[in-house]
């Protein structure tokens, strides 16, 4: 399990590499066109400046999430041009999971 800390309203950036079969997973080569991070019922996506990705991984500004202080299970969903429903890459019950602890900034 991976853990992260977010600070409400702050611009701290967390960087991650996604792995598949113990190898770095290239989001660009997989034709990902959009990512979403969801935690505590709030969502930010790569159409905003708070979430970005490239072939080496993704960066997220958790402080942009409007959620309560405390622990939140986080989901990362990837979308491609041929899959507008998205595929959850990181989330509850999956091999890759991320717990976010939100704190006051």
Note down, in words, how this protein is organized.
The two termini are 24 Å apart. The mean pLDDT is 95. Strand 9 and strand 10 form a beta hairpin. The chain has a single domain, classed as Immunoglobulin-like, CATH 2.60.40. The chain contains no helices and eleven strands. The radius of gyration is 13 Å and the shape is globular. It is mainly β and 105 residues long.
Descriptive terms for the model:
105 residues; 6-stranded mixed beta sheet; 3-stranded antiparallel beta sheet; 0% helix; single chain
Write the layout of secondary structure elements.
Layout: E1 2-7, E2 14-16, E3 19-20, E4 23-24, E5 32-39, E6 42-45, E7 51-54, E8 57-60, E9 70-80, E10 83-90, E11 98-103
Parallel strand pairs: 1-11
Antiparallel strand pairs: 2-8, 3-4, 5-6, 5-9, 7-8, 9-10, 9-11
Q: Would you tell me the structural class of the helices and strands?
A: mainly beta
Range of helix content = under 10%
- Main sheet makeup: 6 strands, mixed
> Order of helices and strands, N to C?
EEEEEEEEEEE
Shape-level CATH architecture? Sandwich
- DSSP strand count: 11
Q: Given the C-alpha coordinates, what overall shape results? A: globular
**Portion in beta strands:** over 45%
Number of helices: 0
Using only C-alpha atoms, the radius of gyration works out to: 13 Å
Determine the mean pLDDT.
Answer: 95
Low-pLDDT segments: none
Short description:
The protein has about 100 residues and is an all-beta fold.
